[in-house]
Design goal:
6 strands, 38% strand, four-stranded mixed β-sheet, globular, single chain, two-stranded antiparallel ribbon
């Protein structure tokens, strides 16, 4: 099963490691360090126009990728649980 993250991006649901709420995630120093590392490595893909509402961390054979999306964490959860995934 696949999860649609917005703006024509789809990831395998099995590759999703975590979904972060951007309103609260950046408070943690560990999350800040993760964001800084992934930014430095060029592993962040921006899928938003104004502000990101959620960050989806995915891992596959090529490493970690962080998708910043305008969808809320709750919307992503509903898509994953209720079959709104592609």
């Amino acid at each position: 099963m696949y999860l649609h993250l917005g703006q024509d991006y789809i990831v395998p649901l099995q590759n999703v490691v975590a979904v972060f709420d951007m309103d609260t995630a950046t408070v943690s120093k560990r999350t800040q360090a993760l964001l800084a590392r992934l930014q430095e490595e060029g592993r962040i893909i921006e899928l938003y126009e104004d502000l990101p509402r959620a960050a989806v961390l995915c891992e596959n054979a090529l490493g970690e990728t962080l998708y910043l999306t305008q969808l809320s964490p709750q919307a992503l959860q509903r898509r994953a649980e209720k079959g709104y995934a592609v």
